[in-house]
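TA notes, week 10

Several of you asked for a full example with nothing omitted. So below is the full record: structure tokens for the whole chain, then the designed sequence directly under it. When grading your own attempts, check the secondary structure regions first.
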């Protein structure tokens, strides 16, 4: 698999295709903040009929702050608990939530971020 930054070749990594899904990481390091266009491409397999899906572009935001997520809900539901658990599992996010328990009662949960 080939990695490109702003359509310029960066590097190649080998991926072993198996049944199901395979995962591959490209560590990215930028000198300054901004949004950078990267794309990944695979070479077509012999006899491959449609190669239009062999390249995908993505935009990578580079910042010195974690993205903040605020979840606000009128009442806490069981599915919100699972959503919050997933959000909190991502170390790249700062998550806060607010729930209204009744007309005059609400509670908030603010994630503590080291260094803030």
């Amino acid at each position: 698999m080939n990695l490109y930054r702003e359509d310029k070749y960066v590097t190649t990594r080998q991926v072993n295709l198996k049944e199901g899904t395979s995962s591959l990481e490209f560590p990215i390091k930028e000198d300054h903040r901004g949004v950078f266009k990267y794309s990944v491409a695979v070479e077509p397999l012999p006899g491959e009929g449609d190669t239009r899906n062999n390249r995908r572009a993505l935009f990578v935001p580079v910042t010195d702050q974690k993205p903040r997520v605020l979840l606000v809900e009128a009442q806490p539901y069981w599915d919100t608990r699972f959503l919050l658990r997933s959000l909190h599992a991502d170390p790249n996010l700062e998550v806060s939530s607010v729930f209204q328990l009744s007309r005059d009662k609400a509670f908030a949960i603010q994630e503590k971020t080291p260094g803030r």
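The chain has one helix and seven strands. Use that as a sanity check on your answer.
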